[in-house]
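Need residues for this backbone.
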């Protein structure tokens, strides 16, 4: 495993400054990041729900995309212009109302220009994923 280029505290400071529209509200918490994996938590809110009382797809996609960004930054450092080029999500089961959503992201391949990873989205303490995501990020020349 590579040594992380950014700690959780450094990631939080960077994201508060550079990406406040997604991070500064405190709706997403970085629990860990080590340069290869990360774990994010989005505390439960009724704003997450769609009709029928399940966690909405947009909530899950946004959290998964943000988790990939965090794990990538932990691996490469503060490269704000790294962007998503592909995101595929498979919804596996209903996310339960009243439960936090966790995103466990893992880099599968880190190249000079592209990074590929996967994210498992979990509801509360259940070990069964509610969605599985694969994603590719483009890394700009620095």
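Answer:
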């Amino acid at each position: 495993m590579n040594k992380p280029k950014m700690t959780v505290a450094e990631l939080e400071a960077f994201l508060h400054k550079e990406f406040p529209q997604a991070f500064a509200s405190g709706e997403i918490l970085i629990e860990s990041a080590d340069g290869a994996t990360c774990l994010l938590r989005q505390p439960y809110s009724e704003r997450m729900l769609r009709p029928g009382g399940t966690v909405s797809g947009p909530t899950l996609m946004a959290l998964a995309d943000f988790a990939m960004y965090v794990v990538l930054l932990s691996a490469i450092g503060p490269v704000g212009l790294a962007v998503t080029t592909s995101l595929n999500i498979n919804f596996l089961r209903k996310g339960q109302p009243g439960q936090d959503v966790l995103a466990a992201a893992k880099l599968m391949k880190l190249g000079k220009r592209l990074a590929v990873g996967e994210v498992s989205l979990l509801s509360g303490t259940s070990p069964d994923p509610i969605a599985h995501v694969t994603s590719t990020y483009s890394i700009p020349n620095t």
